[in-house]
């Protein structure tokens, strides 16, 4: 049996095995180095973050906010409520259109006019007093003798106040004829006359009446 020779060349199979083992060991070392490098920054960053977090100053207490001033509320008079205007129906060509009317409050009823007061009755016309009625039989004035001799003539107008009973209450000379004797003769005669009193409706009233007296020499 031949003895082992240390200088005997290594077989090819063994050589390949050794080479493969070396390659695997090299790759394993490379992988470990990469993993170690990847871990170191993480640990360093964690330590730095921890260090920074430890030396940060404590936050100061927040300053108190100033108290809010009370707002002054300005009171304004409420605006008058204006009722919405009623809807106006607009005629269109579409017969199926529907107009919706807005409900509004009913207008207040118109005030009822007060009944007109009864008109005062028209005043009753006054019927003047009369002195020329035939049934009165009033005598003519006496023609004064002196006036006849002197030829005095003229017309005297008397103003007579007649009572409700028809008697002369006052006789005044309204227009003189120019001769005092004739004026006085006319006044004395009429003061004895009777009159038909003035009348307002069914009531006799006091009134004034004018009485003309004619003095003529031709008719006397």
**CATH homology superfamily name of the domain at 126-215:** TonB
Architecture of the domain at 126-215, according to CATH? 2-Layer Sandwich
What overall form do the CA principal axes indicate? Answer: rod-shaped
Show unreliable segments: 46-52, 87-93, 95-103
Helix content: 25-40%
CATH level 3 topology of the domain at 126-215: TolA/TonB C-terminal domain
Number of strands: 6
> What's the mean pLDDT score?
75
Compute the number of helices: 3
The biggest beta sheet reads: 3 strands, antiparallel
Question: Could you tell me the strand content as a percent range?
Answer: 15-25%
| SSE string, helices as H and strands as E | HEHEEHEEE
The radius of gyration over CA amounts to: 76 Å
Write the layout of secondary structure elements.
Blueprint: H1 12-55, E1 126-127, H2 145-150, E2 154-162, E3 168-175, H3 180-190, E4 198-200, E5 203-205, E6 207-215
Antiparallel strand pairs: 1-4, 2-3, 2-6, 4-5
Tell me about this structure.
This protein has 220 residues and is an alpha+beta fold. Among the domains are: 12-51; 126-215, TonB (TolA/TonB C-terminal domain), CATH 3.30.2420.10. Helices cover 28% and strands 15% of the residues. The protein contains 3 helices and 6 strands, in the order αβαββαβββ. It has helices spanning 12-55, 145-150, 180-190; strands spanning 126-127, 154-162, 168-175, 198-200, 203-205, 207-215. The strands form 2 sheets. A 3-stranded antiparallel β-sheet has the order 1-4-5, with no helix packed on it. A 3-stranded antiparallel β-sheet has the order 3-2-6, covered by helices on one side. The longest helix is centred in the first third of the chain and has 44 residues, at 12-55.
């Amino acid at each position: 049996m031949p003895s082992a020779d240390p200088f005997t060349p290594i077989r090819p199979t063994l050589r390949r095995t050794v080479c493969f083992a070396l390659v695997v060991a090299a790759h394993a070392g490379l992988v470990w180095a990469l993993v170690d490098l990847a871990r170191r920054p993480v640990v360093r960053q964690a330590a730095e973050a921890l260090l920074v977090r430890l030396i940060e100053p404590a936050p100061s207490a927040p300053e108190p906010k100033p108290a809010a001033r009370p707002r002054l509320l300005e009171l304004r008079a409420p605006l008058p409520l204006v009722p919405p205007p009623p809807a106006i129906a607009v005629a269109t060509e579409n017969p199926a259109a529907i107009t919706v009317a807005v409900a509004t409050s009913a207008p207040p009823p118109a005030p009822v006019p007060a009944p007109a007061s009864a008109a005062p009755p028209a005043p009753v016309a006054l019927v003047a007093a009369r002195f020329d009625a035939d049934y009165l039989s009033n005598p003519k004035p006496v023609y004064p003798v002196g006036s006849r001799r002197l030829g005095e003539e003229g017309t005297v107008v008397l103003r007579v106040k007649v009572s409700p009973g028809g008697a002369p209450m006052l006789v005044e000379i309204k227009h003189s004829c120019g001769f005092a004797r004739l004026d006085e003769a006319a006044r004395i005669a009429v003061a004895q006359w009777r009159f038909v009193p003035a009348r307002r409706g069914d009531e006799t009233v006091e009134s004034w009446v004018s009485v003309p007296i004619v003095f003529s020499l031709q008719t006397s």
